[in-house]
Amino acid sequence: MDERKPVAPALKAALDFGPLLVFFAAFFLFKDHPVTLWGESYGGFVLATAIFVPVLVVAMAALWALTGRLAPMQIATLVLVVVFGGLSIWFNDPRFFKMKPTLIYLLFAGLLGFGLLRGKPWLQLVMDGAIPMAPEGWVILTKRLVAFFVFLAIANETIWRLFSDTVWVNFKTFGLPVLLMGFFAAQAPLFSRFSPEEGKKED
C-alpha cells in the first residue's frame, strides 16, 4: 500500500482555512463595489461566493492529492458548498449560501444521532486516529457534539436572518471556528478521563 507522508501543519492549515480567508477578503473587497455582468448587478457577497467555491475545490483536491483521502465531513461540506454556492451565484441570491452551514450542522447532528440510536458512535470511526479514547468516552462526546451542532445551526439561522451580511461573514469566518475550537478544548477532561492510558492506570 502506498503510504503518503503527513502534510506539514502549516500547509494543512492553509488548505483548511485559506479558502475561508479568501472569501472574507473578497467580500470586503467587493462589498461596496458591485459588479455588473450581462446586465445583472452582483454584490460583494455573491462575488465572494463565486471566488470561494473554486478556491475550496482546489484546496480540497490538493489535500486529497497530498494525503490520499478526505474525511467524510470534508466531502459533505464540499458538496454542499458547491451546490448552495452555485445556487447563490446562479440566482444572485446570498440566502442559499447563508443557509449552507445550517444544513451542514443539521446533517452532521442527524447522522451522529442516528449512529447513536444504532449503538454505533460513528464519530469514533472518523476521529479515532486523532483522539484515542475508550468507547464510553466516544458515546459521551458524540452526544455533546450532536447538541453542539444543533446549537450552531440555530445560531447561524439567527444571525443571517436578523443581522447584516457583514455580521454574518465575520461570524462565519471567525465566530464558527472559534466556537468549534472552544468546544473541543472544553472536552479535555473527557479525553483525559477516557484515554487508554488512564484506563491502564485504573487496572
Automatic annotation (TrEMBL):
By sequence similarity, the record places it as follows: Belongs to the YciB family.
What the protein does comes down to: Plays a role in cell envelope biogenesis, maintenance of cell envelope integrity and membrane homeostasis.
Carries keyword Cell membrane? yes
Q: Give the transmembrane region(s).
A: 12-30, 42-66, 73-91, 103-123, 144-163, 169-191
**Pfam annotation, one family:** IspA
Question: What HAMAP family does this protein map onto?
Answer: YciB
Its localization reads: Cell inner membrane
This protein is called what? Inner membrane-spanning protein YciB
Annotated membrane topology is: Multi-pass membrane protein
Per the UniProt entry, the signal peptide is none
What PANTHER family does the record tag this protein with? INNER MEMBRANE-SPANNING PROTEIN YCIB, INTRACELLULAR SEPTATION PROTEIN A-RELATED
Q: Which InterPro entries match?
A: Ser_caboxypep_ser_AS, YciB
Predominant location: membrane
Provide any one GO MF term from the record.
serine-type carboxypeptidase activity
A single GO cellular-component term from the record reads:
plasma membrane
Q: Which UniProt keywords apply?
A: Cell inner membrane, Cell membrane, Membrane, Transmembrane, Transmembrane helix
Highest rank taxon of the organism: Bacteria
| Transmembrane helix listed as a keyword | yes
